[in-house]
Specification:
158 residues; mainly alpha; two-stranded antiparallel ribbon
């Protein structure tokens, strides 16, 4: 007989039931939002990592490949492989830095700019489908509370 699967949200020692409920709701929201974004990007034939790459380049076109890896929180080899795929798709191009040939700069192509704008539309639609039906006062309170959680989590890391 197989044991019951472990419930990741069973009570934790020292954590009250209300806090467990908050943790459960937060984790479900994060997982559902992630799945929504993956689905929205997949319908456009995009990978989420590439979408974030296009977003970063739209604001910082010509950054170094190393800076891009840092901004994406990915390893250099992972970014290299992603950029190779994006080059083949025609959305980015890599060029050596004019002053330092050891540095590679990443630039959006016109197709890359158009793709980034389209993905912004897709993300906007997905976010709107979730949040537009929530009253403004509740959205403001949710934003405030999530900022508190984020700040407290960041403080716990230091």
């Amino acid at each position: 007989m197989r044991p019951e699967p472990h419930d990741p949200f069973e009570p934790l020692e020292g954590v009250d039931p209300l806090s467990m409920g908050v943790l459960d709701a937060f984790m479900r929201a994060v997982a559902a939002h992630r799945q929504l974004m993956f689905t929205a990007f997949a319908q456009e034939g995009a990978h989420p990592g590439q979408a974030f790459c296009l977003k970063i380049l739209a604001g910082r076109d010509g950054i170094s490949q190393r800076e891009l890896a840092g901004a994406l929180h990915l390893s250099a080899p992972t970014v290299t492989a992603m950029l190779q795929r994006m080059e083949r798709a025609g959305t980015v191009e890599r060029r050596p830095d004019a002053a330092d040939g050891r540095v590679t700069r990443v630039h959006l192509t016109p197709l890359g700019r158009a793709s980034e704008l389209e993905l912004r539309r897709v993300v906007g639609g997905a976010v709107g489908s979730v949040l537009d039906g929530i009253p403004e006062s509740d959205r403001r309170e949710l934003e405030r509370l999530l900022c508190v959680v984020a700040d407290r989590a960041a403080s716990a890391l230091t």
